[in-house]
Amino acid sequence: MKRKSLLRMFQWLSTLALASCGLHRDEASAMRSLQAPAFFIATAGEDSAPEIRVAGHADWEEAEPATADMHFRIGSVTKLFVGTLVLILHDEGKLDVDAPISHHVKGVPGGDKITLKQLANHTSGLPNSISSREFQQAITDDPARVWTAGEILKFAFAQQPSFEPGTSWEYSNTNTVLLAMAAEEATGKTWAVLLEEKIFRPLGMKHTGVPAKGELPDPHPRGYRHGRPGRPIGYGKVRFDVSGYNASWANAAGDLHSTIGDLQRAVVPLCRGSLLREESRRLLHEWQETGTRGYRYGFCIESWDGLIGHRGDVPGYQAVIAVDEKSGRSFGIAANLSNTSGGKSPASELLRWLSR
Predict the structure, then answer these.
(1) What is the CA radius of gyration of the chain?
(2) Which residues pair with 333 in a beta bridge?
(3) φ and ψ at 249, to 5 degrees?
(4) Nearest CA to 155 among 184, 178, 133?
(5) Beta bridge pairs of residue 42
(6) How far, in whole angstroms, is CA 92 from its chain's centroid?
(7) How far apart are CA 11 and CA 17, in angstroms?
(8) Do you know which InterPro entries this protein is assigned to (predicted)?
(9) CA distances (Å), origin 215, targets 209, 218, 255
């Protein structure tokens, strides 16, 4: 059968699968336009029970149905978990968000002038490790490699700082990696263990964690990405199966996996700060202007289009959790495609459609 015929058949099967999940025709159309084989969706009204829906396929070639128990990578949504953890430790007197990172981690350029709060709201000026071309090439050369925080920071610190701390804004994974290291130094426990104790267990999240040896637990869908010929890391129009790419290169900035049920449990507590004391809830939502109209950043949390939460992607997967500030509706969405051929983020685009 010719390629175009196969594609039409896949689209037809996708329509049937989406319809079987109780989706309206326009919802199904919106999902198909975003090119992801599968979407995992959790929604809830402020005073209504959550609804979980799964649509599409776990594997592009085999068309295996996606199911609600599947694990996926959540990318930078991890940052909101780590930021919440740091604020919990602040509440407990184990960390001071106004203290410099040099109190906990040695060797940070200008670390005596960079506070934990500046790390959390991305005003530290520290460069992003993933901006390093050498680091990108190293990930591409060995996508299954499990990276340590120290290895990642070498690529970040080899670059010049972007600005003096507190004078501007720039998103950087380096900041969240350092926040997790501060939490580890202050407690003597790994950031993975701390998240389990302080967030996952209290919220009843039994299927979320740092992947062992970088690998997703079973069951999980295969992950896809559009890149350039021979370069899946960047953006392009060639579809790659990047299921073998782990996210350890992101460390605490993006290396959590979860399920749609667990994401639903986390959305409101993390976005609203219900695990925090009043002072720390204020810090969570102490918004920093970013230079982009309509987009602000708090303590490891985003504010955009009337929503608060966080978006994230790593090769193969894209996820978002958010609460609509006016209506109180909450959303958790994930897809097993990290970007469309047009460079869009499928889960975030679907959220835009569902929340309008």
Answers:
(1) 20
(2) 41, 320
(3) -60, -20
(4) 133
(5) 52, 332
(6) 26
(7) 10
(8) AmpC-like, Beta-lactam-related, Beta-lactam/transpept-like
(9) 11, 9, 10
Both tokens assigned to 179: 């926040």
Quick one: pLDDT at residue 211? 94
Rounded Cα–Cα distance for residues 119 and 177 (Å): 9
CA dist 102 and 104 (Å) reads: 5
The kind and range of the H/E element at 134 are helix 133-141
Look at residue 189 in the predicted model and tell me its pLDDT: 98
Residue 166 has, within 13 A of its CA and on its CB side, a CA count of: 10
Span 120-165, pLDDT tens digits: 999 999 999 999 999 999 999 999 999 999 999 999 999 999 999 9
Cα distances (Å, whole numbers) of residue 348 to 5, 20, 28: 29, 23, 16
Domain boundaries along the sequence of the chain: 36-50+60-343
Which phi and psi (to 5°) does residue 65 adopt?
A: -60, 140
Q: What token pair was written down for 101?
A: 């990172």
Residues in the chain where the model's pLDDT stays below 50: 1-22
Q: Which residues, in sequence order, are CB contacts of 49 under 8 Å at separation 6+? A: none
**Are 205 and 192 spatial neighbours (Cβ–Cβ below 8 Å)?**
no
pTM of the model: 0.93
**What does residue 100 show for φ and ψ, rounded to 5 degrees?**
-75, 150
Indicate the CATH number for domain 36-50+60-343: 3.40.710.10
Q: Which two tokens stand for residue 271?
A: 């976005």
Tokens of 34: 């975003």
Residue type for position 282: R
What pLDDT does 9 receive? Answer: 39
What pLDDT, on the 0 to 100 scale, is given for residue 25?
Answer: 61
